[in-house]
């Protein structure tokens, strides 16, 4: 393990010296590499700052690339005129070897484009454009629909409403959204503080998120215009999911071409929002349980971001909020540096005299990259990996200094009287 740690130190020194313009290995990175992968390689080389003529970057083999899907969360929180970005990513539950369109060689892409078969970056492959799991939204709010020309509206029976661009959910109306690629906040919104705010009836709050959600819903219900405006990209259907009564059906009102309003026949009273099971409803995402232990980590993160202000009267601004389903690619690459006998470049004194001096130092990395709808691959995280474990073995004669046994001191152990 000593030689491995030394290699790491040598490579770190090399990386600190370098900046841009690494020599790319021609054996593994040929001109026929997919354009998306070559752009990914160039971004990594430029971002890490490699600049040595004898520095080589190899790997980025699409045959070894693993593909997975996960949900990404992006939030921008403004606290005292300071915007703090928060980026969270769910763990990819499954990695597979998938032949994505972006992995196709340039020649194959040109041939398929000529035949009209290739639709790279246009969502022609479902594995490139994953979708979010179904979720529920409750009013009052407004939904702006993007890329939802073929969206189905069910209340609970299918209703012909044409191509919808905007849906207004009145108080008490709830819908289940399926097939959406992302959901985001259209306008910044101010959220009340402190985090430990109590219920209107002085009941204890189960969590900080529940406190914020209930205060925001109370403000939305008392306002004539919906405070919350969301954008949903690519939904396939909106289905009524009344939370008050299973027999409740939503009423449809056409306000303009592409604009409809959905309302509930039985609007719950404001005092009912803290009774029974509704106390755990995380409005407007009624499919989430506000007391779920999995949300505790996010609450702790929010509390650390707000600091002391989180427990004082006031508010903070949510500038951006977006939840999207993403496709990720995991690939490996290596950086190789020749070790030359230049003065001060490598300290060979740490190597034993019997050990062969290495000719090059190699570090292996793994990049996690996001596949965008336009076919670009953007790196998000790069980590050093150890593909194999180095074990050293030394012969006995070398450990004893190569001393002859005739010169070794003779030691007589004490006799064992109970030995036959």
Compile the SSE list and pairings:
Layout: H1 2-17, E1 23-24, H2 35-48, E2 55-59, E3 66-79, E4 82-89, H3 106-115, E5 135-138, E6 141-146, E7 152-154, E8 158-159, E9 166-169, E10 174-178, E11 182-185, E12 189-193, H4 208-222, E13 229-233, E14 237-240, E15 250-256, E16 259-264, E17 281-282, E18 285-289, H5 296-306, E19 314-338, E20 360-371, E21 377-385, H6 396-399
Parallel strand pairs: 1-2, 6-13, 7-14, 9-16
Antiparallel strand pairs: 2-19, 3-4, 3-19, 5-10, 6-9, 7-8, 10-14, 11-13, 11-19, 12-19, 15-16, 17-18, 19-20, 20-21
Structure description:
The chain has about 425 residues and is of the alpha+beta class. The chain folds into two domains: about 1-65 and about 330-395, no CATH class; about 70-95 and about 125-325, no CATH class. Helix content is about 15%, strand content about 35%. It contains six helices and 21 strands. It has helices at about 1-15, 35-50, 105-115, 210-220, 295-305, 395-400, and strands at about 25, 55-60, 65-80, 80-90, 135-140, 140-145, 150-155, 160, 165-170, 175-180, 180-185, 190-195, 230-235, 235-240, 250-255, 260-265, 280, 285-290, 315-340, 360-370, 375-385. Strands 1, 2, 3, 4, 6, 9, 11, 12, 13, 15, 16, 19, 20 and 21 form a 14-stranded mixed sheet that branches. Strands 5-10-14-7-8 form a five-stranded mixed sheet, with no helix packed on it. A two-stranded antiparallel ribbon has the order 17-18. Strand 20 (about 360-370) and strand 21 form a beta hairpin. The longest helix is centred in the N-terminal third of the chain and has 16 residues, at about 1-15.
């Amino acid at each position: 393990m000593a030689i491995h740690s030394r290699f790491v130190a040598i490579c770190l020194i090399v990386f600190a010296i370098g900046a841009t313009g690494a020599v790319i290995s021609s054996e593994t990175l040929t001109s026929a590499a997919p354009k998306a992968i070559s752009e990914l390689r160039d971004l990594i080389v430029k971002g890490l700052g490699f600049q040595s003529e004898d520095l080589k970057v190899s790997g980025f083999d699409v045959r070894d690339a693993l593909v997975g899907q996960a949900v990404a969360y992006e939030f921008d929180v403004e606290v005292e005129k300071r915007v703090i970005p928060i980026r969270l990513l769910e763990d990819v539950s499954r990695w597979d070897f998938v032949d994505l369109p972006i992995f196709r060689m340039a020649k194959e892409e040109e041939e398929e484009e000529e035949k009209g078969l290739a639709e790279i970056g246009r969502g022609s492959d479902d594995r490139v454009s994953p979708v979010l799991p179904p979720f529920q939204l409750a009013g009052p709010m407004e939904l702006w629909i993007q890329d939802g020309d073929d969206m189905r509206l069910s209340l609970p029976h299918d209703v012909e409403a044409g191509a919808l661009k905007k849906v207004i959910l009145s108080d008490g109306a709830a819908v289940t959204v399926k097939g959406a690629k992302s959901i985001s906040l259209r306008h910044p919104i101010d959220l009340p503080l402190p985090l430990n705010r109590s219920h209107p009836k002085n009941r204890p709050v189960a969590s900080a998120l529940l406190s914020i959600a209930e205060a925001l819903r109370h403000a939305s219900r008392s306002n004539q215009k919906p405070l919350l405006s969301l954008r949903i990209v690519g939904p396939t259907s909106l289905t009524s999911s009344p939370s008050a009564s299973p027999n409740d059906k939503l009423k449809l009102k056409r306000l303009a071409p592409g604009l409809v309003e959905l309302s509930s026949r039985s609007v719950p009273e404001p005092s009912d929002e803290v009774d029974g099971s509704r106390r755990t409803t995380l409005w407007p995402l009624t499919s989430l349980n506000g007391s779920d232990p999995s949300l505790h980590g996010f609450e702790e993160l929010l509390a650390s971001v707000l600091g002391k202000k989180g427990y004082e009267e006031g508010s903070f601004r949510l500038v951006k909020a977006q939840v999207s389903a993403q496709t990720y690619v995991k690939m490996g690459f290596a950086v190789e540096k020749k070790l030359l006998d230049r003065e001060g470049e490598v300290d060979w004194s740490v190597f034993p005299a019997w050990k062969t001096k290495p000719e090059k130092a190699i570090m292996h990395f793994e990049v996690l990259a996001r596949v965008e709808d336009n076919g670009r691959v953007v790196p998000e995280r790069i980590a050093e990996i150890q593909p194999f474990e180095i074990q050293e073995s030394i012969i006995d004669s070398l450990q004893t200094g190569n001393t002859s046994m005739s010169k070794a001191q003779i030691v007589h152990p004490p006799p064992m009287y109970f030995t036959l």
